[in-house]
Amino acid sequence: MALLRASLLLIGLCLLPLSSARADQAILIGGGYNINGSQGQIELNVSWIQDVLNKVNMPVVTFFTDGDDPAPDVHYLHTKVEGDEPSPVDQLAEQLEPVARLFDNQIANARRFKNHEIKSVIGGTEASSLSNALADLFEAAPDDPTLLVFNGHGKQSKTTPDKVTMELWDDTSMTAAELHSLMEKSNAASRFVFTQCYSGGFHRLAYKNPEQGLELSSNMRCGFTAESAYRLAEGCSASIDSDDYRDYTTFFFAALDGYDRQGEILGVETDTNSDGQVSMREAHFYTLEYAHSTDLSRSTSEDYLSAWQPWYLKWSSGRGSLPNNEYAKLYRTLADRHSIPLSDSPAKHIREKMNMYKDTAAQLHLRGIEIRHEIRAIQDELIYAAQRKWPSLSGPYTALFQSLVVSGEMIQVAQWVSEQPGYLSLVDLQNEDQTLSDSILDAERNLTQMQKLFEFRKLARLQNQLYLYAKPEEVRDYEKLVACEDSPLIFK
């Protein structure tokens, strides 16, 4: 059976365009853990990543949700487009919106389900089948460099970072330690990009012992993650409007491609060393500088610096002027963008802004609680009145409730709700609640920019400390990771 799986995967690879360079391969894994966790943004991210990789003629093996099963495996939110002919379902949803708002189901009323449209999917992501397929791929081409990309969801570990997971189809999962074991079957250097929540735990792929220690794995591995092993990542929206995407995928792969998701050329040169190609490290630094999101992203070499620092150096890590390196440059650039003075107690000004954004988010949150109480009061009053006229409304999923739908009487219910004195207030409050959520997200994004400033200062000093105090083998390992990260999509 393993031989058959390997043969099928190799046949799939042979049908893909071959690179004129080495026989690199990209393994792209995407989708949610079930239909409710498989958002439209993930599908669009995976499709776009495929396009970026295809531009450089890199063979891509794609695994997505349930593979070629025709059942729905993606959900998205329908938005009305001016001039488009609405479908019967969309027309009915618009008619029933007052009832949906009355019962707090306006988001569910806009949700639609479909089968994915990802091209050339070779298999699904259920954990056991994916594990077997990855083992076959690594064993079939053990000397070929691999780029491994995951775009989906993750779960935090309550113990060590190597226990963070990729949440996979059919509510299964794979830990960083389990993936580490699979990647041990490869002899070649590998890179990875993980964009899920708590993705930072996957930096343990780079080490010989995924649970602890700084010794690197014998086959070189490095990569980039949207977040640490302890923080949620931005993204995974059900929206299909890519104009608003600010996740790590959007910035990182735009930097590699030179074009944004709408096909517009980037207004910034991402090939910062002017060697004619954008390295993955350059894409990461572009993302650190320009991504106005809640992601505090990191690379494996940055993870190495944080894990390496001896306890006795932490006492002096915040003192003195910054050394002259790439993290100090990032710090100065971002500080200038956010009007942080560099010569007059910058840490004080950063903390003041952090507190301001925290206070803003807290005040918005309290207002949100008030609004939801007001919403609930209006809903309770309207529901009571509606159920007096239509008692069947009190028993969803019953025969009498269904009869309201079949007879078309539910449309009358919706019309009645829309004519009640409190309905317009309900709509206004629900819209304000959504606006508040957007404002809270904006405050959290601004707060992350301040956290980035502290992170850049720390990394600038850590890198300097490494060269001053580390053992020669520790410096060599750090530089190996940097060299690995500083490679283009096609590994040289």
SSE string: HEHEEHHHEEHEEEEHEEHHEHHHHHHH
| Shape, principal axes of CA atoms | globular
Domain count:
2
In CATH, the topology of the largest domain is named: Rossmann fold
Indicate the mean pLDDT. 91
The strands making up the biggest β-sheet line up spatially as 5-2-1-6-10-11-12
Helix content: 40-55%
How many strands, what sense, and barrel or not for the largest sheet? Answer: 7 strands, mixed
End-to-end Cα distance, whole Å, is 34 Å
Low-confidence stretches: 1-23
Number of helices in the DSSP assignment: 16
What is the strand tally?
12
Rg over C-alpha atoms, rounded to the nearest angstrom: 25 Å
Give the CATH architecture of the largest domain.
3-Layer(aba) Sandwich
Which class do the helix and strand fractions yield?
alpha/beta
Strand content: 5-15%
CATH class of the largest domain: Alpha Beta
